[in-house]
Write a structure and sequence with these properties.
160 residues, alpha/beta, Uracil-DNA Glycosylase, subunit E, 4-stranded parallel sheet
C-alpha cells in the first residue's frame, strides 16, 4: 500500500543532531510520532546514552528531544510498504531535509539502521552533499544487537 509520511519532522532552532529513521511503523503512524512501537529500543537507548529518564508519553519524548537538542525525521517521505516491514519498502520518494537543515544548526546526521542509511545515500546524498553516519537499528527486528551493545554504538551521538 502506498503511504505518505503522516506527521512532520521534529526539530527546533537549536537542534544540532538529526536522527533519521526509514519510515514510521504502523504504531508510529497511529500515534503520529516517532518510535511508537513499545518494542522499539530507540527511547531506551537514547535515555541510556544521555543518562536520562526514558520518556514514555509523546510530551515526555518531545521534552527529551528538546533537552538534548535532537531533531527527528525519516529518510522516506512516501513509499509502498506492507505493515512496518522495511524489507517491503518500494517506490521510495525521499523526504526534503532542507526544512530542518535551513532552520537548525545540525552538526551531524545519523541514520537509525541500514534501510534509512541506504535510502539516504541513494536519494538524498546526491543532491544534499552532506554525509551521514549509520548506526545499528533500534528495531526489535535487529535482535542480533543486545541492548548494551546498541547503547555502546549509539554513544557516538554524544560526541557531536
Amino acid at each position: 500500500m502506498e503511504i505518505t509520511h503522516p506527521f512532520p519532522p521534529f526539530y527546533r532552532a537549536d537542534s544540532h543532531i538529526l536522527i533519521l529513521g526509514s519510515f514510521p511503523s504502523v504504531k508510529s503512524r497511529e500515534q503520529l510520532f516517532f518510535y511508537g512501537h513499545p518494542q522499539n529500543r530507540f527511547w531506551r537507548v537514547l535515555a541510556a546514552v544521555f543518562e536520562d529518564e526514558t520518556p514514555r508519553s509523546i510530551p515526555e519524548k518531545r521534552a527529551f528531544l528538546e533537552r538534548h537538542r535532537i531533531a527527528l525525521w525519516d529518510s522516506i517521505g512516501r513509499c509502498t510498504i506492507e505493515g512496518s516491514s522495511d524489507s517491503s519498502i518500494r517506490d521510495v520518494v525521499p523526504n526534503d531535509l532542507s526544512v530542518i537543515l535551513s532552520a537548525a544548526p545540525i552538526a551531524a546526521i545519523f541514520c537509525n539502521g541500514k534501510q534509512s542509511f541506504d535510502c539516504y545515500c541513494r536519494y538524498i546524498l546526491p543532491s544534499l552533499h552532506r554525509e551521514a553516519s549509520v548506526l545499528p537499528s533500534t528495531s526489535p527486528a535487529n535482535a542480533a544487537w543486545r541492548f548494551e551493545r546498541l547503547v555502546d554504538a549509539w554513544r557516538v551521538i554524544r560526541t557531536v
